[in-house]
UniProtKB/TrEMBL annotation:
Keywords: Cell cycle, Cell division, Coiled coil, Cytoplasm. Its main location: cytoplasm. Gene3D superfamilies: 6.10.250.660. One of its GO terms (cellular component) is cytoplasm. It is found in: Cytoplasm. Belongs to the DivIVA family. It comes from Agrococcus jejuensis. It comes from the Bacteria. This is Cell wall synthesis protein Wag31. GO terms for biological process: cell division.
Amino acid sequence: MSATFPKVRRGQLGYDIEQVEDFLEDARRAYASDSPTALDSSQIRQASFALAKSGYSPAHVDAALERLEEAFANRERERGIASKGEAAFFEGIRTQAEETLARLKRVDGERFRRVGSLTKGYRVAEVDAFAARLADYLEDGPEITPREVRTVQFTAQRGGYDEDQVDLVLDSVVSLMLAVR
């Protein structure tokens, strides 16, 4: 098997080589297909791989996945415009942005569902601060990149925000960003 990416040092953990290669082969086939496929930009963003000794460098694989996600998003935008027309496509994006913005503009401490007091979730204050930045961005505020949204990390807190719900909104923001590039 050829080395598509640099490997981590011997004995260190990296992404499982076979899983990465299989995923990339599926992505190549999906992208080469003329018909819409089961693989889309959001699935690329959510791809994860097991860790294995002497695997691929996570930083290199993650950077390649970002480029692949953007390529799929560009194609999805082109297909959406071709099938719906430009006005209808961007009206759908505007509707999605308005719904996301409404969530992001909720009152601090109430933007997302909270987990139980004995369960750890994302730290509320950190998520609220980042949500405010995203709301500013969606209202034509300061620039923020898809990479910043993809890679944001929050510390844990008992009784914090539900991680799945927060992650779903962050994915929606990245999709919006890529749809209007």
